[in-house]
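Friendly challenge for the regulars: who can give me the structure tokens for this chain first? No prize, just bragging rights.
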Amino acid sequence: MLGEYRIEGRRAADIAASVERAVGSGALEPGRLLPPLRELALRLGVNPNTVAAAYRILRERGVIETSGRRGSRVRPKPATTGREYVRMDVPEGVRDVASGNPDPALLPSLAEAFAAAAGQGDREPVLYGDAPVEPELARLARAALDADGVPDGPPAVVSGSLDAVERVLAAHLKPGDTVAVEDPGWGGLLDLVPALGLRTAPVGLDDEGPRPEEVRRALESGARALIVTDRAQNPTGAAVTAARARALRAVLGAYPETLLIEDDHGHGIVDLPVHPLAGVTRHWAFVRSVAKAYGPDLRLAVLTGDAVTVDRVTGRHRLGPGWVSRVVQRAVVRLWTDGALDTASVATAYRTRRDLLIDALARRGVEAHGRSGLNVWIPVPDETAAVSRLLHAGWAVAPGARFRLNAPPGIRVTVATLTPQETAPLAEAAAGALSRAPARNHV
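First reply, four minutes later:
Bragging rights claimed.
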């Protein structure tokens, strides 16, 4: 059943750690069936309750799943390994359009902003016990949120969108609770939810965002939280329209105890307006990071929400890292106020690159999606064949397995650095790869 690998340990924590190490190293592959409780207990010389406790730990960490009499097996995409296990090395000479990164040429210089922030830090040092949020950052962020119709709420600053989502989920949910997530959706989030011991309820979407009927189905089935990407959805580029926002608010209105988390990481690189859903449910959070517009290494996101949610997040944050460096916060203030980023030009550049590729694919009979953001999503009949053939043609694309739960297969192309001269060759290669990909039936 386990090949050459032998699970070890006498305590539940040790047994769980043994399995987790094996999954992380690849010795236990996704889908591998684990021994029945009593069989493993007999082999290790422990009480079956000890093995049951170990398996419970592994389920809560998102490493294994249990299906009644069919037993326990390593999750198809275990949190221990993450979705990056499907990442492939890009050979020399192959064009990488798989990374999901912004165009470095469109990122502003950080040197002057950080120099000014460091100088301010010398004059006004931040000490233990000082406020965790830079007042001017809070003021500017709140003004932008007000302009976009985001309900009033206290501010918090955390280390990026995923950090914000994790802290909000942990503030309200317990292991075993279900979270409704977009499918296809952000691979990091699809790994994070089970790693917190939570269950995922996939919600289908189209170019206008999550489908209301699928959100309703997930909430009817007991999902306690819903996570929505307002714009620049990864990987599909979906953006919630005004009509879709009204429909989603109507669904949420029937489930006011739902924890709503909105991720607006596309702020600053998207020329579509945001249509927030917040304000319908009792507990909500709205997150904006600066990573896409100002650089992935600038680990800062502004979070607002209802008073209880933000208080829980900031209270727990205070017990851990304490605060996000005020030097970093002051640098972001400088970037915002000095006009370091021409957001309109950046948004136009990304839109032009998406549209050129989508149009080129359409002329070749290939369906593609990308209303906003850095990526274009291409449905395919067979991911493995499409990725392999494109790689052979000189293009490295991201396989959709990184982003899917139940959604049909697809591939993601990051257009952030794609030049007009490259668009036609890439579209031609994609059309060729798909025309030779064998069809598969998907339920």
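The chain is about 40% helix and 15% strand. The CA atoms of residues 370 and 376 lie 5 Å apart. Your move, everyone else.
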